[in-house]
Request: fold
Amino acid sequence: MQSEFLSAMAAVIDSGKFAGGPFVERFEEEFADYCGTKYAIGVGSGTEALWLTLVAMGIGPGDEVITVPLTFVATVEAILLAGAKPVFVDINPATYTMDPSGIAKVLTAKTKAILPVHLFGQPADMGRILEIASAYGLSVIEDAAQAHGAEWHGRKAGSLADAGCFSFYPGKNLGGFGEGGAVTTDNADLADRLRMLRDHGQKRKNQHDAIGWNSRMDGLQAAVLSIMLCHLETGNRIRKHHALHYRKALSGREELMLPGESEGTSHAWHIYALRVSDRDGLLRDFQTHGIGYGLHYPVPVHRQPAYRAYASGESALPLAEQCADELVSLPVGPELEDVQVEQVIEVIHHWTDKTL
Ligand SMILES: Cc1ncc(COP(=O)(O)O)c(C=O)c1O
Reply:
């Protein structure tokens, strides 16, 4: 595979098309095609994909955007960078994604958009979210940064709403050799505005119609991502295989609450996160046995020092808080061998046997 990357990168070097250009355009076409949307707009990162989408939709000061507190901070950061106010609703503790039943309670005349996160690769409850959005005339932006290839009723994440925002940070299901992101959409006007905003607000050279930013995707990154995209489905299949392996081996242990796949969805298993009430106990055993694990996310965004002002009340988001205390992410990914998954399972079995 290394020679494939080297020759793709050599082609970019020979062309001198490093910032935007034909390699980016090719990747944009391939990615839009993969997601089943008319357009994909390559940008500098997932954070910029979210931020520029909000700006392109005209969402800014005085507006409110409904989102979740259990996510990577960038989801909320982007709303604030656009000048709007994040309004949190709690999550469903089984899927870890937005609980649509909380939306009605926080709707105001200022609400402009809903920003669900397909956390860990599990598509959010889009049916109910889209229904509410259409009833109240709100835009819906998918944070699909962890959900490349995930599906909701046979449709790919990124094609389910007004826009889908992706990150290509290394380690994502579709990760590059550095920073990158994209927005997918069927809306031609939105796509045009995004292309303008990512290039200093210019539609044509030396004509700046809007205040934009430099968020052009690198040609080298796009060439790498075109190759990575060919391997995405295989990688996702291996992730699913590991997730099923964990489920089969760990179900029935009452100390553990395992993640599932919501009905009608295909999970991308970017992260396999289960809930354990005595998390510290399990983590001690993981450390003793050298098992790599992750915590996503131990402090929900509304508890972070920079975001506390946007929390609606002391315990208004109890399920996100409980999940933040209990979630532990097990190793998963195309590079992981079955025998390594077995080792993780063995340590967990040993720990649950001890706690009986
Ligand atoms: C849910 C979520 N949203 C947004 C982002 C931001 O993407 P990036 O790191 O490419 O800016 C990430 C990245 O980890 C993410 O996980």
About this structure: The chain has twelve helices and 15 strands. Residues 45-47, 71-72, 74-75, 117, 143, 145-146, 167, 169, 181 surround pyridoxal-5'-phosphate (CB under 6 Å).
